[in-house]
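Hi Prof. W.,

I finally got the TetR family transcriptional regulator prediction working! I wasn't sure whether to trim anything, so I left the full sequence exactly as given:
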Amino acid sequence: MNVQLLNKKEAIFESTLKLINEYGFHGTPMSQIAARANVATGTIYHYFSSKDELILELFKYCRERTNDHIFNVDQALSYKEKFFFIWNRLVDYYIANKEVFWFIEQFYSSPYYELIQQKKNPSYYGADRMRLFFEEGIKSGIIRDVSFYTLVSIYIGTATSHVKMVTYGFCKMQAKGREDILEIIWNGVKNQ
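And this is what came out:
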């Protein structure tokens, strides 16, 4: 895909992301997305056959960007250091990119998530990278052999909860508090 086409597609994604955060899925018509992206409405239909397809692809786009950011990790780090690094990168990314965070949260609570589930392909939204990371820790005997969904609930669940606490103003983003959270998570999942 050439740069100009990629830029138009990204402009459509960024426009959709902003509008959905402002007006929700149903309050964001394609014409408004086109106007905000500074493209013709027909251009959107060149890339996406429907608004549903656009939203599904936006979810994929957001997850890929997020995962590219959080898994940009130095492989020389110990597993524990990677565990802390990835969690902190996720929290930092979501706080710096609140529209992405709130879109993903809204997406998981919507019927669109059901469409993803029907595909039966977790790599579609980046879960494979997290799965491989946890499998590495289990296979090497560093973390407990529990289900992927248990680990994700503990690891990602606390990260998203912390982002919400910071975003809502219930707590300040302090290094000590984050380190405490990570130590509690780590002590719960590491092999004793």
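The CA atoms of residues 62 and 119 lie 18 Å apart. Does that look reasonable to you?

Thanks,
D.
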